[in-house]
Design brief:
By secondary structure, the protein is α+β, with helices and mostly antiparallel strands. The chain contains 3 helices and 4 strands; from the N terminus they run E-E-H-E-E-H-H. About 30% of the residues lie in helices and about 20% in strands. Strand 3 and strand 4 form a beta hairpin.
């Protein structure tokens, strides 16, 4: 199969060669005033083999978006992938990969300790009925169990 080049970095990634879970540098953009935005592909599930169920994915998004900011002031965004296999983490003016891994570990441990999902109501969330704290905790636990492998992106 011939792969068409696109303007989207993740579309040009060969999803058949990666091994989830992993944390991959997916992009780096320097602004005209010197700020640097770095994007990470934080993959929880093996592409085309598994996916996160929406209530769990949604709750993990809320929990992580809230809790990760307790560990770093350079977080821009934590956003889910449409394929439901992971998230994108965007940061500004910070390029220490190992520190990103440590912050993700701390944040996933925060998720495991959570007693509720933040902003899980109709005022603060666009689909408040679609949440699962237990599902989010299961995803965090599964991700943490492979912590020593997060740096491995491609199968050998």
């Amino acid at each position: 199969m011939t792969k068409e080049q696109t303007n989207v970095e993740s579309f040009d990634l060969d999803h058949t060669k990666v091994v989830a879970p992993y944390v991959r540098l997916a992009g780096r953009k320097e602004g005209q005033h010197g700020d640097v935005v770095v994007k990470y592909d934080v993959r929880f599930k093996q592409p085309n083999k598994g996916h996160m169920e929406m209530p769990a994915l949604h709750s993990l998004e809320h929990l992580t978006a809230d809790r990760i900011r307790n560990h770093a002031d350079y977080i821009i965004d934590w956003s889910p992938m449409g394929c439901q296999t992971g998230y994108y983490l965007s940061v500004i003016n910070h390029e220490n990969y190992n520190e990103i891994l440590d912050i993700l570990e701390k944040t996933m441990n925060d998720v495991l300790a959570a007693e509720s999902v933040p902003a899980c109501n109709e005022v603060q969330c666009g689909w408040a009925a679609s949440h699962s704290l237990e599902g989010a905790k299961a995803l965090a636990k599964e991700f943490l169990a492979k912590r020593d492998e997060w740096h491995i992106v491609f199968a050998e």
